[in-house]
């Protein structure tokens, strides 16, 4: 699976509506309202890179109230469980 992190700038008075609409887009796993340079961050997972074209510019960017999107592709996933297992040397 391909994971993309999509940073979304939205019209200030439409942030909750934009978040709701983006959360309803197929392949969007989570949407977060955040502090910082963007208003929302969406996590998208798709089977192939080509599918990103339909999801991000084809759907997310067209949601009313979306001003701009920036997309970052994930190379590798790390979770706390994975890191703990990597450093576990078997001592109890």
TrEMBL record:
<dbReference type="InterPro" id="IPR019887">
    <property type="entry name" value="Tscrpt_reg_AsnC/Lrp_C"/>
</dbReference>
<dbReference type="InterPro" id="IPR011008">
    <property type="entry name" value="Dimeric_a/b-barrel"/>
</dbReference>
<protein>
    <submittedName>
        <fullName>AsnC family protein</fullName>
    </submittedName>
</protein>
<dbReference type="Pfam" id="PF01037">
    <property type="entry name" value="AsnC_trans_reg"/>
</dbReference>
<feature type="domain" description="Transcription regulator AsnC/Lrp ligand binding">
    <location>
        <begin position="6"/>
        <end position="76"/>
    </location>
</feature>
């Amino acid at each position: 699976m391909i994971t993309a992190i999509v940073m979304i700038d939205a019209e200030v008075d439409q942030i909750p509506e934009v978040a709701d609409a983006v959360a309803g887009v197929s392949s969007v796993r989570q949407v977060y309202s955040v502090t910082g340079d963007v208003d929302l961050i969406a996590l998208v997972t798709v089977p192939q890179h080509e599918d990103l074209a339909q999801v991000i510019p084809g759907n997310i960017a067209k949601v009313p109230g979306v001003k701009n999107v920036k997309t970052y592709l994930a190379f590798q996933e790390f979770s706390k469980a994975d890191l703990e297992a990597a450093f576990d040397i078997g001592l109890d």
